[in-house]
Each structure stands twice: as structure tokens, then as C-alpha cells.
Specification:
It contains 1 helix and 6 strands. The chain starts with 14 loop residues before the first strand and ends in a 23-residue tail after the last strand. The longest helix has 8 residues, at about 40-50. With about 100 residues, it is mostly beta strands.
Length: about 100
């Protein structure tokens, strides 16, 4: 059986939805920032969570993702929604495959 583990850094508010796709975990909720904590920077992530260093925050609009990339490691990043200044409270997430060409 598996166990839940915290993803370093996190988001600055409550979350209400989760989705998994394309190697990322997506979270939706009521938050305006994400911490850019990465797996190899646990100290930076804990400083962000404790709000000791605002330079570690990135603005987010209710939706963010945790992706594991070869170049950056595992990091939180905001998800942009073109045409929306604010997503408000995100209570559900649906991931769709895009079409190429």
C-alpha cells in the first residue's frame, strides 16, 4: 500500500481538487501563490511555507501543478489560463489531450 507524502513548498491556501496527467499533479483551490520549493531545496521550501522569504513565492490564480522535469527537478508552478485574470476558487479539474498539427 502507498502512503501520502507532502510535496515541498505547496500552495498558499486551501485546495479542493486534484488531477494527475502528463507526469504532473494538478491542484485547484482558493490560493494566490505557490512556493517554488524543489526536491533538492528543502530548506528553501520550508522558508517559503513559513512565509519567511517572499522571493520564493510565485503568483498563482487558483490552479497550480507539481511536475518532475529532468532540468528543474520537481517544482510547483502556476498554471496560466489564457484570457482569465483570476480563476477564483477551482473546485474541479479536467485534463484534456491537445491535438497537434
Amino acid at each position: 500500500a502507498g502512503a501520502w507524502e507532502a510535496l515541498l513548498g505547496g500552495v498558499g491556501g486551501p485546495t479542493f481538487s486534484l488531477a494527475i496527467g502528463a507526469g504532473c499533479v494538478y491542484v485547484g483551490g482558493r490560493f494566490t501563490k505557490v512556493c517554488e520549493g524543489a526536491a533538492d531545496t528543502a530548506v528553501r521550501a520550508s522558508r517559503c511555507e513559513a512565509e519567511l522569504d517572499s522571493s520564493l513565492h510565485q503568483p498563482a490564480r487558483g490552479i497550480a501543478r507539481w511536475c518532475n522535469s529532468e532540468h528543474a527537478g520537481a517544482v510547483w508552478e502556476p498554471v496560466a489560463a489564457e484570457g482569465f485574470e483570476s480563476m477564483g476558487t477551482v473546485r474541479a479539474i479536467t485534463l484534456m489531450r491537445g491535438r497537434e498539427g
